[in-house]
Specification:
This protein has 587 residues and is an alpha+beta fold. The protein has 5 domains: 6-164, PAS domain (Beta-Lactamase); 212-260; 261-353, Beta-Lactamase; 358-428, Orthogonal Bundle (Helix Hairpins); 437-585, 2-Layer Sandwich (Heat Shock Protein 90). The chain is 53% helix and 20% strand. α1 packs antiparallel against α4 (159-210) and α4 (159-210) runs parallel beside α5 (225-260). It starts with a helix and ends with a strand.
């Protein structure tokens, strides 16, 4: 059975009180009994002194000593048993023994009190009487006559009186002990309640603290051990609260840092199982929520990544490597894996997405190669034509003029190429300042068509604008919109066959203005459509160069439209025509 501290304190108190009463009873009872016996002995000897006087007077008169009659008389007056014993131990008289039976009583010389009196001393003893069959207390003194002991006077008191007194004493002791225990129960219960209340408060506070509530305080006063315990527990709670607050702050800061990082973070435990993955890495690799506790190879399934992680774990030194991961979203990562020192041990890997960097590097290489290729052709033509013209200028002036025309044509092409490169560079570097304003695209389209009217009429093209009766206004830069339409219409006029149709179609959809340049030309194969807006990309390279294009017009269109917060696209069906479209926010 489980006892609370209050019950334990009460039981301990009662046990101590009961033990004290038992010890007191065991110690005092013999002392009190001895004190009563000593008092009774003094009383018996005092009575014997009176009896001795009468007996001495009677013994001094020869023939006058009727000891049995004297014993009966003195016993009646004293209320005790009075006995006279001769010097030889024979019974001379006894107040409780008939005179006729005196001769039948055994000799008393061996009785302890009689023997002591016959030696001239006071005799005292306690024993069962063989004569009367009761437990008695005996006291005896010698009776002298003529200087010698002629008899012994003895009186006896029954032990019932002493035992009755001791019984009453025992009863009174038991009653007193009961009262003391009752008072002790009440007082110990009250004291235990007061002490246990403080302990219960401390226990309740400790239980709430262990459950996580560190705001609770005992606030106990006093200078005793319980008060000190309460204050110590309050101090412990304050320290724990401050420590936990600091740890929560560090945890939250660490969590916010991981969540805000653009780089992916993968933390492995000592068994190289996933311990933590930040949101950026989950998004990069499309990881699910069940990755925790698994091996990286089970979820990412990339041997190059596993090699980097194993290398760092085996060597205990940082390791890095570039990893290409396929799937729905192919990526290239620069992975830096570093072993964790101390405990717990593990590994942390940081994933830096270099997909865009590698793409830009590839674009830069392609750009350099394309620019070199585009510049090499007209430069070679110019040099060759110049050398030929120098040799033929005197012999064949007409041929020299043709080569001069070639030089002029290629120089113009170089100029256009350089101007387009500079224009594209200014747009990408945000050096071109746009004046955003509401723009009516219909007049801009008509103005652009007017520029190409001669070429349109010469090739019998049908160029029109299709727009609502009240066309909405676009929000953008007028000059930029004019340049976009110029590049798109120029391409349509260049590549459409004679008699084709070129249409500028303007419609409004969902607060957006969509402008499309449609033609009924030869169209473009689907494999070329995703790359048409790249620099120097040509679907038909030979024909584009013959037409005099630089390969940068559509790239300029894309950058201009995106700078005005729009989108650009192309749709085409070989043999049926092409639609280049772009959107602008409605004003």
């Amino acid at each position: 059975m489980k006892l609370d501290i209050r019950t334990k304190l009460v039981l301990v108190s009662l046990g101590l009180i009961a033990a004290s009463i038992f010890v007191l009873e065991a110690y005092l009872r013999p002392l009190i009994q001895q004190e009563i016996v000593d008092t009774l002995r003094s009383d018996l000897f005092a009575r014997l002194s009176l009896i001795e006087r009468d007996a001495t007077v009677r013994a001094a008169v020869p023939g006058a000593a009727d000891w049995d009659t004297l014993a009966d008389d003195l016993g009646a007056r004293a209320g005790l048993r009075v006995t006279f014993v001769g010097a030889d131990g024979a019974l001379l008289g006894d107040s409780e023994v008939p005179a006729s039976a005196l001769s039948t009583v055994e000799n008393h010389a061996a009785r302890p009190e009689i023997a002591a009196a016959l030696r001239g001393e006071r005799g005292f003893s306690t024993r069962n009487s063989a004569t009367v069959g009761r437990r008695l207390i005996y006291a005896a003194i010698p009776i002298r006559s003529g200087g010698r002991i002629v008899a012994v006077a003895r009186i006896a008191s029954p032990m019932e009186q002493l035992e009755h007194g001791l019984s009453r004493l025992r009863h009174m002791s038991i009653v007193a002990a009961g009262l003391a225990l009752a008072v002790a129960v009440i007082m110990s219960t009250a004291a235990a309640h007061l002490m246990s209340r403080a302990l219960r408060e401390i226990t309740d506070a400790a239980r709430r603290m262990s459950a996580g509530d560190l705001t609770v305080r005992t606030r106990l006063g006093g200078v005793d051990e319980i008060g000190q315990l309460g204050r110590t527990l309050d101090g412990l709670a304050e320290n724990l609260s401050a420590t936990l607050a600091a740890l929560r702050g560090e945890r939250d800061l660490f969590g916010r840092m991981l969540e805000s990082m653009q780089e992916g973070v993968l933390v492995l435990n000592r068994d190289l199982r996933v311990l933590l993955v930040n949101p950026a890495l989950r998004d990069m690799l499309l990881l699910g929520g069940d990755i925790i506790g698994r091996l990286p190879i089970e979820t990412i399934r990339n041997t190059e990544l596993q090699a980097v992680l194993d290398g760092a774990a085996a060597s205990g030194e940082p390791a890095s490597g570039e990893v290409e991961i396929g799937g729905l979203r192919p990526r290239r990562f620069m992975v830096h894996a570093t072993p964790l020192t101390g405990e717990p041990r593990g590994l942390v890997a940081v994933f830096v997405d270099v997909t865009e960097i590698r793409r830009l590097e590839s674009m830069r290489k392609d750009f350099v190669a394309n620019v070199s290729h585009e510049l090499r052709t007209p430069i070679t033509a110019v040099r060759s034509a110049a050398e030929t013209a120098r040799r033929t200028i005197e012999k064949d002036p007409e041929a020299a003029l043709r080569f001069v025309d070639m030089i002029e044509r290629n120089a113009r092409r170089l100029q256009e190429l350089v101007e387009d490169l500079l224009e594209l560079s200014r747009i990408e570097s945000k050096q071109v300042r746009f004046q955003t304003e509401p723009v009516d695209v219909v007049p801009v389209g008509e103005q652009v068509l007017a520029v190409f009217r001669e070429a349109v009429d010469r090739r019998r093209l049908k160029a029109t604008i299709v727009a609502p009766a009240l066309p909405p206004l676009a929000r953008g830069d007028r000059r930029a919109i004019e340049q976009v339409l110029t590049n798109l219409i120029e391409n349509a006029v260049k590549y459409c066959p004679d008699g084709a149709r070129v249409t500028i179609r303007i419609i409004e959809t969902n607060r957006t203005l969509r402008v499309a340049v449609e033609d009924t030309g030869p169209g473009i194969e689907a494999k070329h459509l995703p790359r048409l807006f790249e620099r120097f990309y040509r679907a038909d390279k030979g024909r584009s160069r013959d037409m005099g294009g630089t390969g940068l017009g559509l790239s300029i269109v894309k950058h201009l439209v995106e700078t005005m917060e729009g989108k650009v696209g192309v749709e085409s069906t070989p043999g049926k025509g092409t639609i280049f479209w772009f959107t602008l926010p409605a004003a």
